[in-house]
Amino acid sequence: MRPVEPTWDEIAVRYRLTLRLQGRQLRGRCPLHGGQNPTAFVVEPTGGVFFCHACGQGGGIGTFVRLMEGDTGADRGARVPEDLRTRRLGPSPLELRRLARLRDVLLHGLPEVEPVYPRDGTHPYFASRGAASSTVSALGGGVYTGPGPYHRRAVFPVWTPEGKLVGHIGRAIDSGVEPRYLCERGFRKSLLLYNEQSGQATDTVFVVEGIFDALAVIQAGFANVVALLGAVASPYQLAALSSSRHVVSLLDADDAGRRGATLLREVLGRNVTVCDLVHGDPGDAMADRIRYALAGAVTGSPLRPG
To answer: How many helices (H) and strands (E) does the chain have?
Structure first.
């Protein structure tokens, strides 16, 4: 007889987790790395999956139990050793297939939002960031100067692969303004890949962290690019990328970006090519430097620009 998988209620009791309901998610401190952020550890009860925004671990209940039990001799809830976390990262192939099906359902159920208009794609702010107005406008972006929370922000709409408008990302254009990035309340960032399009999974997909990174890669001549809107892919994002024939990672050249690239390669395997700018991020890199870094990914021999 097939064993019955425990519920998250049972998991919480077993490992003494304190999880609080926020919307449709359960949140708390991550027991895997001993984190103190009270909302970094997220559980989706509907799909039975978890994700930590701090340490990057994620997957199903089985993955969580294996990680907890793999800490030999340690108290439950203690920090998992670094060598264990790098040895077994992310959801399994079976979990990825389940996550992909659940993601389709959740994306279909996301509410459509009202567009933030008007947006000026020719605003000087974009030129100061090295982004051509034609590229900004092609993605529907622009600076919004009207009333409301997006005032004087570079606003980019976020669509599902089927074209439903489900949110906006607004980047403050004035220094010292917090939060630097803003989105609608309830925006499900972990479900989405920015610039994901229907049918995109059959091609080589370039993966970056942010919207301005995506703009830079597009201007360098690689149009099929998606942004994680963060350094580490969520389980749902990993599930979306798992159907791609070839995933090329060009995450930021820092500890967080390299941790995210490691997760992509560990979970998605040989379908992933990791490119490294050595320092900085694509959004601040010249087009020739991006082309140099990515040229090898297409030919099979990634290069490292100096």
So the answer is: 10, 13
Yes or no: say if 246 and 295 are a contact pair by the CB < 8 Å rule.
no
Contact 33, 52 (CB under 8 A): yes
Rounded-to-5 percentages of helix, strand, coil across the chain: 35, 20, 45
One-letter identity of residue 208: V
pLDDT tens digit at each of 306 positions of the chain: 344 567 787 788 778 888 888 877 889 999 998 888 998 899 987 667 888 888 878 888 878 888 887 743 333 333 333 433 333 457 788 888 888 988 998 899 999 999 999 999 999 999 999 999 999 999 999 999 999 999 999 999 999 999 999 999 999 999 999 999 999 988 988 899 999 987 665 678 999 999 999 999 999 999 999 999 999 898 899 999 999 989 999 999 998 899 899 999 989 988 899 998 888 899 998 899 999 889 877 755 444 444
Query: What's at 140, amino acid-wise?
Result: G
First to last CA, the chain: 57
- Are the beta carbons of 218 and 225 closer than 8 angstroms? yes
CA distances from 258 to 102, 148, 208, 290 (A): 28, 37, 12, 17
Is 57 in a helix, a strand, or coil? Answer: coil
Residue 205, beta-bridge partner list: 247
From residue 238, give the alpha-carbon distance in Å to each of 89, 138, 224, 267, 271.
12, 26, 17, 8, 12
- In this structure, what token pair is assigned to residue 13? 């009791």
**CA pair distance 260, 268, nearest whole angstrom:** 12
C-alpha distances in Å from residue 41, one per residue of 3, 169, 267: 26, 23, 20
Contact between 121 and 91 (Cβ < 8 Å)? no
Reply yes or no: is the peptide bond before residue 118 cis, omega within 30 of 0.
yes
